[in-house]
Design a protein that fits this description.
197 residues
Length: 197
Amino acid sequence: MAKNTQPVLKRCKTLNISPAVLGYSKETHRNAKKMRRKQSEYGMQLNEKQKVKFIYGVLEKQFRAYYEKAERKQGVTGENLLQELERRLDNVVFRMGFANTRREARQLVSHGHFTVNGQRVNIPSYQVKPGDVVAVCEKSRSTTKFKSLVEERGKQACPKWIDKASEALEGKIIAMPAREDIDYEVAEHLIVELYSK
């Protein structure tokens, strides 16, 4: 399984995104470069694509497959692409507050700590759909990791499309994620322009 091992804060600074989007509370204190050259149109498109790929921890081949799937669906391609990425199981686990970062959520899913509709799933890219119930496995519920997460992040607000009780270690997908649920700035039309050349 390929994974991105780049330094998070350095990459956040390059892509001009806040580390809080990824779940990190640290900020970089390095001095910003005084003068930057004006970015070309291609540079802006590439930057947006790299930003979204980095946030969700997806590499190029998989990202391209998500784009092609979004293009085949009815509706706005850019919004469909973000919807496909939001529906990944590792992202849902992060959104529910069961992990501090998407990278941690990916690892927890890979280690088999979660079930979808009662079946154990260890594939981070698994696509959830409305009606699915994502829960922590019975064995994992008693670990200190999940007990502390309930105390720390149990009161964290979930997106509207996930119904999660504050003390429960499970949540139900009640709708498809909408464009308004994306909590970081992204110009998805630039990604569509880049791929449609």
